[in-house]
Amino acid sequence: xxxxxxxxxxxxxxxxxxxxxxxxxxxxxxxxxxxxxxxxxxxxxxxxxxxxxxxxxxxxxxxxxxxxxxxxxxxxxxxxxxxxxxxxxxxxxxxxxxxxxxxxxxxxxxxxxxxxxxxxxxxxxxxxxxxxxxxxxxxxxxxxxxxxxxxxxxxxxxxxxxxxxxxxxxxxxxxxxxxxxxxxxxxxxxxxxxxxxxxxxxxxxxxxxxxxxxxxxxxxxxxxxxxxxxxxxxxxxxxxxxxxxxxxxxxxxxxxxxxxxxxxxxxxxxxxxxxxxxxxxxxxxxxxxxxxxxxxxxxxxxxxxxxxxxxxxxxxxxxxxxxxxxxxxxxxxxxxxxxxxxxxxxxxxxxxxxxxxxxxxxxxxxxxxxxxxxxxxxxxxxxxxxxxxxxxxx
Amino acid sequence: xxxxxxxxxxxxxxxxxxxxxxxxxxxxxxxxxxxxxxxxxxxxxxxxxxxxxxxxxxxxxxxxxxxxxxxxxxxxxxxxxxxxxxxxxxxxxxxxxxxxxxxxxxxxxxxxxxxxxxxxxxxxxxxxxxxxxxxxxxxxxxxxxxxxxxxxxxxxxxxxxxxxxxx
Lengths: 394, 167
Hints:
The complex is a heterodimer of chains A (394) and B (167).
Chain A: E1 3-10, H1 21-36, E2 45-49, H2 60-67, E3 74-78, H3 84-97, E4 103-111, H4 117-125, H5 130-134, H6 141-156, H7 160-174, H8 188-192, E5 196-199, E6 201-202, E7 211-220, H9 221-227, E8 233-242, H10 257-270, E9 283-285, H11 291-300, H12 309-314, H13 331-335, H14 339-354, E10 370-377, E11 382-389
Parallel strand pairs in A: 2-3, 2-4, 9-10
Antiparallel strand pairs in A: 1-7, 1-8, 4-7, 5-6, 8-11, 10-11
Helix pairs in contact in A: 1-2, 3-14, 7-11
Chain B: H1 2-14, E1 19-21, E2 28-30, H2 48-55, E3 60-64, E4 70-71, E5 86-90, E6 94-103, E7 116-123, E8 128-133, E9 145-152, E10 158-164
């Protein structure tokens, strides 16, 4: 049973002191339901991606059932660190594919700024292996990825300037996205002169702490027909991978094994040539929680050969007009990274791009009718690669 | 956070509720009156030899008696053999530095420390160890020889560290 996204919504990402958790979530849910033209009674399952801890409300599915007046709907909250959003999509997608559900509301929501920044830094550090990496070593999230950045620099000769260029690109597009946390361009020097967070990462190499929410409505092929839905995109395939909890149990720090595996699975299922997948895609949202992570993603996703991801940056091949536009919504870097909402927001972006609804200056050319989302939890602990398309998958 | 808490205390008296205005947005916030402290109690019953080893200056891994696989961090069970017949194996404490980072922005629970370097080394025995690197991070580079030393942390207990080998 093919599965379509028939509606999508997303809030402004950033500091959202103006709303509480259910108000923030409802902003996205309302848009998703209105674009899909569905009512509460049409939804038979609700999956909420929310990592939580830093925010007060934990029973978010029930909270939104109550706030949104849903009825006769199954629900759950899922967590896969920073891949929480795409994990929520995974649950809804498989529920419809198996015939257990017809129309699923996927909500990703995070209110990280209900806690002060130091507390959030403390909590995010615990997304690795708590006992062996945090308790005695105090690894922070920028630190986990910086370990990869250092290895990449040593192996392939990339520089801090190369990484800064990723931030410049993503801010360039963030400036054109009214939903982005940072709607301003930055200069290379600005990024290079910022203070270190975790060497070699400086402030502009890191995604921010964000409040935000995104939602999509998934529907079965049958419902798409029954409701006469015109505006939709389809889930063509999804690959899911897992990595070790401890970084020391990994063979390589210049690749995320879980992500390259997830990509391979997704490409194969969608019938995409894994040697040149960019020829089949119009663009991609990749998990740029840190700048170097975007470069490594280019290689794990086979947009470039091993060691050549940095060339794509230098040649500006991931701007619109290049080999493949990447993160033209600003990415996690500039759009913001509300953990549970990020993966769902990537789906919203695929929906907008493929249906040519993106804002001026950041709309890609839709030629192949396919868009990719790459969502990573932890440092490759969980990887989700999802391929969305305009045509119904065969 | 401290400012918000103070404002809330004042506002309890003046306004009647623990509220404060967010400076940037001007939006009214309720300042939570409940607080949670987390401190976990974690079982090390089955890897206590590892800590005894540190006391004797040794870095120990577990080794499956059947297939010979080494596990570091040490673990109780061999998932390949579906067996728990393990022995303790003393690692040689020498190897090669693979990668590192310097943590400048530290979690509050590490605020007593200056920026610290976290590194990963591959030991000659084949396992990798993640640990703090002692010394100037600017003087080391991936690929160089390192050793493991056991030293007391600021908190007073023993921990293994990665130390660059001179020359």
